C-alpha cells in the first residue's frame, strides 16, 4: 500500500513515537537496499529525529531561536540540484529562496554546520543543501539530502505556505505557494518510482478522502484542518 513515507512536524522526540520512526526508517533503508526506490521526506521534527537516529544520539541538537519565523534558504556553494527537490525550481524561485522570506520555520532545535561537519555519522549519510539563520543570526542546517538514498530532510515547512492560514507570518504569495507545489510534486514523482503496485480497490479503501477533517483554523494554532481518529 505504501510507495513512500513522510515524517511530519510535531513534538514527540522520545518514547514510542521515536521507536516507531526508527523502525520505519530502518525498513526504508532495507527496501532501497533491496532495489525498491522508496522515498522519504522528513520535515521539522522528522529532520530532528533522523539526525538523532542516524547519529544514535538524542542530544545532538542544540537550541535555536527560530519559532514562527519567515526566513530564507542559503544554498551551499556548488550545490548540485539535479535529481533533488530543488531541481524543479526556476532560477527566479531559487532567487526568491535566497533573498526573500519565502519559507516558514517553526523550530527551537537544530544543528549548526560546524557541529554537523564534525560528525562522521551524519556527513557519511547526508550532504548539506541549505542553511538558514535564526532571529539571533545563528546559522543552522535547513535542508539535507542523503548521499545514497531518495531521502530529503527539511528544517523548515514547505507545506504550510499553501495550506496553513492560522499564523500571519507564514508566506502566502503566489511564489511561496509554488514552493509547496514543487516540494510536493517531487515527493510524488519519487514515489512513482516505487515497485509497489497495490490493487486499485485497496487503494480506494485507504484514501484519506474516506475520513473527514475538522476545521481548527479559528483557534490560530497554525493547523487549519486536523484528522481526529478515535
Automatic annotation (TrEMBL):
What GO cellular component is one of the record's annotations? vacuole
Spell out the reaction equation it catalyses.
(6S)-5,6,7,8-tetrahydrofolyl-(gamma-L-Glu)(n) + (n-1) H2O = (6S)-5,6,7,8-tetrahydrofolate + (n-1) L-glutamate
Q: Which residues form the active site?
A: 44, 157
Q: Which domain of life is it from?
A: Eukaryota
Where do the Glutamine amidotransferase domain residues begin and end? Answer: 4-170
Q: Is Hydrolase a UniProt keyword of this protein? A: yes
Molecular function (GO) terms listed? gamma-glutamyl-peptidase activity
GO-annotated biological processes: tetrahydrofolylpolyglutamate metabolic process
Q: What is its EC number?
A: 3.4.19.9
What UniProt keywords apply to this chain's record, in alphabetical order? Hydrolase
- What Pfam families does its record include? GATase
The UniProt entry, under PROSITE patterns, shows: GATASE_TYPE_1 (PS51273), PEPTIDASE_C26_GGH (PS51275)
State the protein's name.
Answer: folate gamma-glutamyl hydrolase
Question: Organism source for this protein?
Answer: Carya illinoinensis
